[in-house]
Amino acid sequence: MQAEPVSTSPMPDDWQRALVLMAHPDDPEYGVAAAVAVWTAAGRDVRYVLATRGEAGIAGLAPAESGPEREREQRRAIDHVGVRELEFLDHPDGRIEYGVALRRDLAAAIRRHRPELVVTMHFGDTWFPGAWNSADHRALGRAVVDAVGDAANEWIFPELTQQGLEPWAGVRWTAVNHPGGDRHVDVADGIEAAVASLAEHRKYLEALSGDPVHEQARAQVVRATGGPDADPPRVHFTVYG
């Protein structure tokens, strides 16, 4: 993990609805879920839209079996953090392509859900030196940032308006989760919910390591929220808008 910035500011909290747009099942659980648990406990409406069903994510398990299982795991995961709406856009796992089709699907999701805050994950080339980011994360995050503008523009995807999805210019902030971000959410009250949420991805975690699933989940959430010495644990974002 990168070191916490010297000075950070709290995330904007003048909003009621957030839309988390990410690539795969489990992506929200690696850090963001702790913030989501805090937000929903405060009465805010948070929804998830995932570009894929994660069908290519488990070694040795064919996509036809893996995709439905990972969807089930994600549906169980959201229960722990107060999320009630979950959609999948059915782009191919491992082969998400940045382009007009992805931007259109994301803009449509933004128009459907009409959030004030859009949240996505880091989409730079690397997580930190020596750790390459995945092609799906890079394509998806860049498209999310562009789709916020697309959703507000009546002329870019006029077919969405014809389908009854009116333009939505109500996104006030786009937040990109990254340990180097200059905004933060204090998440001490969301840690346990986030661990339980990530632990629901049992088959996925079992394929990654022979360590007990809850131990893996706790280690990942602690790492994503500042490490074992963080006081308080925080989730960081770079915020645009």
UniProtKB/TrEMBL annotation:
InterPro entries: GlcNAc_PI_deacetylase-related, LmbE-like_dom_sf. One of its GO terms (molecular function) is hydrolase activity, acting on carbon-nitrogen (but not peptide) bonds, in linear amides. It comes from the Bacteria. Keywords: Zinc. GO terms for biological process: glycoside metabolic process. This is PIG-L family deacetylase. It comes from Nakamurella flavida.
